[in-house]
Amino acid sequence: MMQEKNIRFVVFKPQMLEDFQKQKIKTYFPENSMVIPELDCYLDAINVIYTIDGLENPMYVKSNAASDFPRAMMKQAKIVCFIRSGMEIFKTSFAGIPIELHHNSAGYKLSKTWQDEHGGIMSLRSNIDSKEHRIFIEWVPPMDWRTRDKGHPDKTEKDLIDKISGTPGVLSHNLFGEKKCHFIENGDNFKMTYRGPAKGFNGTVFV
Hints:
By secondary structure, the chain is of the alpha+beta class. It has helices at residues 14-22, 105-118, 157-165; strands at residues 2-3, 7-11, 27-28, 47-52, 79-85, 97-102, 121-124, 134-140, 170-173, 181-186, 205-206. The chain has two domains: 2-87 and 177-206, no CATH class; 97-173, Alpha-Beta Plaits (2-Layer Sandwich), CATH 3.30.70.
């Protein structure tokens, strides 16, 4: 169970709402997209956004809906976590780590080989933007990304940051750009594994 009286959740799936409420966790579910007009299509059913503040609106995330790579999406949130749950990842519409690739041979090769090499699921977020000389992709790491390399210590978020940032062809990436952003793995029924990222929650204790 998760214990933090000031934490607020915004969820985008009815089952998430039900599961969190069973644990008596404050949860907000926008039944009508007009309730929070700041939301856009990049926040979908597999995302959970946490904010720790006293605002009446539990989340205030501004984003430019016309942008293919909206960095502003997470800037107003206090804490941002992306949670992958069960088979939900196999939907055609998913949200992962937005990555910009150079529109050159290195970037194009990476868009074809990254998933084979690192696992997970990758999708072309938008068409190649020849004017901007970049390719937009979206990658969801595999469930075993922390232990994928056998014989090596468990990977951390910093390891993943360094791997993405240091790969030829990568122009930028968005999810781990700030300490408040975390990718979280969880099993069935939201038996969450928060031991790694818990330190990023300003003292929030997960038990």
